[in-house]
Amino acid sequence: MGSRRRSVRDWLVDITLFLFAVLFGLVLSTARITAHELPDQKWLFDVDQLVGVVGCGALWLRRRSPAGLCTVLMVVSSVSELVGGAAMVALFTVAVHRPMRVTAVQFALGIVSSVVFTVLRPEGDLPLYVVVLFGLAVQSAVTGWALVVRHRRELVASLRDRALRAEQEAELRAEHAQLRARESIAREMHDVLGHRLSLLSVHAGALEYRPDAPREDIARAASVIRESAHQALQDLREVIGVLRAPVQELPQPTMADLPTMIAESARAGMPVVLRSGVEGTTPDTVGRTVYRIVQESLTNVRKHAAGASVEVDVTGAATDGVTVEVTNSSGAAPSGAPGSGQGLVGLAERVALAGGRLTHGPTPSGGWRVSAWLPWPA
């Protein structure tokens, strides 16, 4: 408390409390002189005044050791009435800045000091209990006011702390939302562009290694390259749109788009067969996930098993969920198309977000199978 530098507000509070203690002593001293109620020994009144001045001056040290100063002033107030104002200021400081146990001890000490002072220096014809009750009332008022100030400060500090924590939590939520948005964009770019670019790579590689191919094959490969490049640009524009619009506003593939993608891969030269046995209308979220699973699987076949035949089986119902399996035979050597190694990882994340399960691995015939089960939302 005393280590920190006083602010302008602290100086104003200290000056106000100091002036209150001085004014208390002056008023009481003036009343004694005016009413000719001085002690029998004149020197005792002079000592009382000197003690009052010293007590008021000691208030400037109350921020360093409030409990110690209060104890000293309470003890002195048992023989000197002019230091009473300083003692009340010290009690106020203790109640504001120290625990209730310390405040209770100082309060009890003040009552004892009041009783001792009344016994040593009785107030004319006033009964002892009246003087003690008056001292109790004054101390109670000072302590109550101090406790109100203390609890108000604690409330303000608590509200400030809660506001700070709420702001930090809001920042964490915003960072988490941004992270999820980045992951969503990364998945979309990998799934969409990986599919298109793998088509470009396969046909460009065919043109590179078969420069003597018939003109019809070259024309067909060039047509596929041009179409895939155009569609890749369209897909890229849609993915970039994630940065400018909510995901819900972007065109998203569904189960109904699956035959179109299969036909596109077949035109590019991949032997692929689709068997679909889904009962009812598939929810959009499930259909989109199925589409991405098949899309990534076909992309991986083009990259790692060029020329392999592929079977796509999609079955399911509202009571059983949807099962999708993509199985390819053993194919030629990898096409040489670059891969990030994150395709299956992204699929696993996508399926897990949908509440499903994903498995993958080699088949006994030397091919590869990707299998996933997705729940049917109620």
From TrEMBL:
Keyword Ligase applies: no
Nucleotide-binding in keyword set: yes
Superkingdom per UniProt: Bacteria
Organism: Actinophytocola oryzae
Protein name per the record: histidine kinase
Signal peptide per UniProt: none
Domain (Signal transduction histidine kinase subgroup 3 dimerisation and phosphoacceptor) ranges: 182-247
Gene Ontology, cellular component aspect: membrane
Stretches assigned to the Histidine kinase/HSP90-like ATPase domain: 288-376
Alphabetized CDD domains for the sequence: HATPase_UhpB-NarQ-NarX-like
Reaction catalysed by this enzyme: ATP + protein L-histidine = ADP + protein N-phospho-L-histidine
Keyword tags: ATP-binding, Kinase, Membrane, Nucleotide-binding, Phosphoprotein, Transferase, Transmembrane, Transmembrane helix, Two-component regulatory system
Annotated GO MF terms: ATP binding; phosphorelay sensor kinase activity; protein dimerization activity
Organism taxonomic ancestry: Bacteria, Bacillati, Actinomycetota, Actinomycetes, Pseudonocardiales
TM region(s), chain numbering: 12-31, 43-61, 73-96, 102-120, 127-148
InterPro entries linked: HATPase_C_sf, HATPase_dom, Sensor_HK_TwoCompSys, Sig_transdc_His_kin_sub3_dim/P
EC numbers for this chain: 2.7.13.3
